[in-house]
Design a protein that fits this description.
single chain; alpha+beta; elongated
């Protein structure tokens, strides 16, 4: 192939490509320009409410555990062998107030006390003739005192002495020393018998009948069963809305078997671990519907009136006490004064009434962001040029 033919082919290709490009530009320039839509500013719609203050009563529901009104350690006040009382020393054994729980061996102490009382009776017999001669006016009183002395019972009350000479006479014969010495031995003897201080049950037994114990030994533990309380841990901030004497409802988690209770006391210290304050609720237990120590119960506290306040969802608050207010269509941060925090809501004041605040959580927003209030969005209207273009296209 000659160079002339090659040159002709190259020139022809260049002319062909150039013509195609020119025709393409011509066709593009003949196409009508598309209509430009008016730019719209999109605003986020948020849920908001107007601040309106009122008086709110906010109840409080908290779970607590039943505890005995009294828990006592049964301690031996004398040394000796444990002898049986009117019941068995076993864990879970129930007893009534005043019932003899057990005795510490006391025969020797009892005999020694009787011997001392007998000696005191001899002393009084020897004094009666002298009293008859020197103090005849009080003779009937001391004769009656002597007749009341019983070896198996406590000493009767010693007659009051108003006459100084009689007082000196009795003291010189050792009457006062002997009388109060016997009363001291009677106290020692009483410590050998262990009586129930209340209706209750044993929760722990360390020594059984037949065991030898020393003074101060812990025989067992017992709790009161006729007076059961519910200890309810309440956040310190919420405890101020609970008052001693408040009537409450007590029930299981399934809301079955509601009992009535009364707030009887509030602890004046805070638990370090939970930062809560213990509220004690007294509940009367009946044989048909027992409240057992260790049970967990739900307690409804009625709450007290919170003046000039408003309630909003907790998740609408950020940074502890900040909410978004809507001012001139923009978000503005406002601090609130939180009065009470509930499980899903909180009660507050501190913002001017009538202010519109956001009552839902907002994500990825900043202050001064333009927003619309949900349900109050402005209606979007199309411009005249847009309507005209649509008509031409039709």
């Amino acid at each position: 192939m000659s160079w002339r033919k090659i040159t002709f082919i190259v020139v022809a290709l260049i002319v062909l490509l150039g013509g195609s490009a020119a025709l393409s530009e011509l066709f593009v320039s003949m196409k009508p320009e598309p209509m430009k839509k008016p730019e719209l500013t999109l605003k986020r719609s948020v849920k908001a409410e107007k601040v309106v203050y009122s008086d709110i009563v906010s109840p409080l529901t908290v779970q607590g555990r039943a505890v005995s009104g009294s828990e006592v350690v049964l301690v031996a006040e004398a040394a000796g062998k444990i002898e049986p009382g009117t019941l068995r020393l076993r864990k879970g054994t129930m007893f009534k107030k005043g019932q003899l729980l057990a005795e510490i061996y006391k025969d020797e102490v009892e005999l020694a006390l009787k011997a001392r009382k007998s000696s005191f009776m001899s002393t009084m017999i020897s004094l009666l003739p002298d009293i008859k001669v020197d103090f005849p006016e009080v003779l009937p009183v001391y004769e009656d005192f002597f007749r009341k002395i019983d070896l198996n019972k406590s000493l009767p009350e010693l007659p009051e002495v108003k006459n100084e000479k009689l007082k000196i006479f009795l003291a010189s014969r050792g009457v006062f020393n002997e009388y109060f010495g016997i009363q001291q031995d009677e106290k020692k003897l009483s410590r050998h018998s262990l009586y129930a201080p209340f209706d209750g049950t044993f929760t722990q037994i360390n020594y059984e009948v037949g065991a030898y114990v020393n003074t101060g030994a812990q025989i067992g533990r017992m709790i009161r069963t006729d007076n059961v309380e519910i200890e309810v841990p309440v956040a310190n901030g919420d405890s101020k809305w609970i008052k001693v004497g408040d009537k409450v409802d007590v029930y299981d988690n399934d809301s079955d078997g509601i009992k009535q209770g009364t707030v009887v006391r509030k602890s004046n210290f805070i638990d370090e671990a939970t930062q809560s304050r213990s509220i004690f609720v007294e509940v009367q237990s009946s044989p048909s519907d027992e409240l057992l120590t260790g049970e967990y119960k739900v307690v409804d506290f009625p709450g007290h009136k919170i003046m000039h306040s408003m309630e909003i969802p907790r998740n609408a608050v950020f940074n502890s006490n900040v909410v978004y207010a809507i001012v001139d269509g923009q978000l503005k941060k406002r601090e609130i004064n939180i009065l009470k925090t509930n499980e899903t809501t909180l009660i507050f004041n501190g913002i001017e009434a009538g202010t519109k605040i956001v009552v839902e959580p907002l994500i990825n927003v900043k202050e001064n962001t333009p927003v619309n209030i949900l349900g109050e969005e402005p209606v979007q209207q199309q411009g005249k040029g847009s309507a005209k273009s649509n008509k031409e296209q039709a």
